[in-house]
Amino acid sequence: MRLLVVGAGSTGGYFGGRLAQAGRDVTFLVRPARAAQLRERGLEIRSPHGDVTLHPQLVTAAELAQPYDAILLTVKGYTLDAAMEDFAPAVGADTVILPVLNGMRHVDRLKARFGAAAVGGGLCKCATTLDDEGRIVQLSGMQELAYGELDGRPSPRMQALDAFMAKAGFDARLSPIIEGEMWEKWLLLSSLGAITCLMRGTTGEVEAAPGGRDFILDVIDEAMTVISAVGVPPRQATVEAVRGLLTTKGSPMTSSMYRDLEGGHRVEAEEIVGDLVRRGREAGIATPLLAAANTHLGVYANRARG
């Protein structure tokens, strides 16, 4: 199997790097500036699971001319349109696109561009960041990549992908309920993002504030109500786990969107919060807290553009 990893940032660089380290046939689709950096310094990973410097196969959009068996799509949601243009030549009749983006908006857009049959489901759980020197730094030991057909059926291409991912230095698993898991991850990300961005603090700080615990639980309930109505209803055990996680006293947890906001970077507001508010509105479901967070993020985005 030949895998094209779109992006060599913190997520794509980590999982793609581990696959390359394990001897898999992996090529990274990168921008010219990132390609130059990687050719000079190599792909550097700093991790509790072991540091490594690799010199992987690289390709730029201008050089891409043949299809791949699978495409691991790891870009930010707000760059998806440009990414689709870049990797389109790599999509052949039998190619499977494995996106690990936040939210669910990207699934509709990928299907519209490449057809439903080309799109698989995927999610990752890995806390990584790109430092000032372009190195991938893993912030915790968690490193899971899950994938499967969106309709849950077993398929030869997913079995081949599972064999390709196995024993590559991270936790890989083929899921028969990947779409449901993607909606459940959105429940966590949208709740966590709205809570920490709107209140500008960690979940522990929000929980300790007057009315903070009720606010957290109300945000989770809004997200759960919308997802249950328009997507795959989350399992009760997952809902309880999210409630417990986000109301833990003294927790230092924040969302990556909050960290981007505090750092003055562009945020995935539409993908994580805005799209959920829109789906709720179209379904006739009020989401006042999520909508307030979305407006707050919109003010930040407009100010940054200005």
UniProtKB/TrEMBL annotation:
Q: What is its EC number?
A: 1.1.1.169
* Superkingdom, taxonomy of origin: Bacteria
Please report the stretch or stretches of sequence annotated as the Ketopantoate reductase N-terminal domain: 4-151
Q: Which Pfam families match?
A: ApbA (PF02558), ApbA_C (PF08546)
- Name the enzyme group at the top EC level: oxidoreductase
**What is this enzyme's catalytic activity, as reactions?**
(R)-pantoate + NADP(+) = 2-dehydropantoate + NADPH + H(+)
Q: Does the keyword Oxidoreductase apply?
A: yes
Please give the Gene Ontology molecular function terms for this protein. 2-dehydropantoate 2-reductase activity
Identify the residues that the record assigns to the Ketopantoate reductase C-terminal domain, covering every copy. 178-292
Can the keyword Membrane be found in this entry's annotation?
no
What are the record keywords, sorted?
A: NADP, Oxidoreductase, Pantothenate biosynthesis
The pathway entry for this protein reads as: Cofactor biosynthesis; (R)-pantothenate biosynthesis; (R)-pantoate from 3-methyl-2-oxobutanoate: step 2/2
Give the protein's function: Catalyzes the NADPH-dependent reduction of ketopantoate into pantoic acid.
Which family is this sequence assigned to? Answer: Belongs to the ketopantoate reductase family.
User: What's the protein name?
Assistant: 2-dehydropantoate 2-reductase
Q: Which organism is it from?
A: Azospirillum picis
